[in-house]
Design brief:
192 residues, globular, five-stranded parallel β-sheet
Amino acid sequence: RPSVFILLVGLLAAVIGGWPPAAYGQAADGFPRTVMVEGEPVVIPAKPVRIAAVSGDVADILLEMVDPSRVVVVPIYMDNPAIYRNVEKAEAVPHRIASAVDLDPEAVLAYDPDLIIITLRQTAEIDALNLLRLSGIPIVAVSDWTGFDALKANVMLIGQAVGEDEAAARIVQDIDERLAEVQRRLEGVTPK
């Protein structure tokens, strides 16, 4: 009886969450997704839960938008409140790693990350990136921090990569509001 079969398939689909299954398309959490990093597509197959943030600036932004339980490693110097905003959250991250000129790609991979986020400033970071790419793990490598527009773009990129688009948008909105307040306070002030 075809109508009974169709009814059973419909009930089965309702029980397991719809048809076609998420494996055939994008899941409810928006993954897999592709983000553009420096003009190149990076495919992130699932919402990252073991993120290696191996540079201080990206780690600080990341910890602004995700629970520390989703971060497996941050740089060893993330305990400096004069530089970083999310020192207390960084304390909850289980592992620390040497970064910048001392970055060791094998040490990063030892934490079995499902996403690597890095800033490219030092030659060692660029060299590490080339080796890390061989692992097949998605990498968000940021190189431009030359102003507020770049900062906001980087926040949005990191938010997209980790599935926290709304949190990233709130951070950018906060930046815009703070900049507008500074501009308001400077109205009528003559530069010396």
